Amino acid sequence: MAIEIKLGERLAKVELLAEEGNQINIMVDSKEYNLDMLQVENGVYSVLYKGRSYNVELIETDSSKKYSVNTFYHSYDAEIIDAETKYLQARNSGNLEATESTITSPMPGKVVKIPVELGSEVKKGDTVIIVSAMKMESEYKAMKDGIVKEIYVHEEDIIDGNQPLVFID
């Protein structure tokens, strides 16, 4: 499974291809790297790549997904951008709904509860569906006053990201 890592201003897609002992094979933005990597102490790693040795120190910051990365010559701020991080960013920015009329979830999950029925009158801010994703339950609310015209899912359904869930007209 690939993750994105933000290193300074650069966003790189990183995927672990194979790991056997200290030998690690990774793909970074479609380029493959074969590394010999050893943790020499907590947060400090020795990396051999193409016969060259690099020392890397990872210092966890205020989040388990944010680090200060130090090498002999450079320091970087790094952040792991995984599915949970993308979900939280979307949730915090309020961009979970595709439109004012169609309610969607930005990531896969499970429908926990649908407190409305077809034909229900809803007001802006009313909860119309509750979805569990990444061990969190999210309430999706009506973005406008209207009538529930379509409910595309049922309680307990497993859903895909960006799948239409409820339509309000």
Automatic annotation (TrEMBL):
Q: Which keywords, in A-to-Z order, does the entry hold?
A: Biotin
Q: Which Pfam families match?
A: Biotin_lipoyl (PF00364)
> Any keyword Iron?
no
Q: Does the keyword GTP-binding apply?
A: no
Describe the location of the Lipoyl-binding domain by residue ranges.
93-169
Q: Which InterPro entries match?
A: Biotin_Carboxyl_Carrier/Decarb, Biotin_lipoyl, Single_hybrid_motif
Stated name of the protein: Biotin/lipoyl-binding protein
Native source organism of the sequence: Labilibaculum euxinus
Instruction: List the taxonomic lineage.
Output: Bacteria, Pseudomonadati, Bacteroidota, Bacteroidia, Marinilabiliales
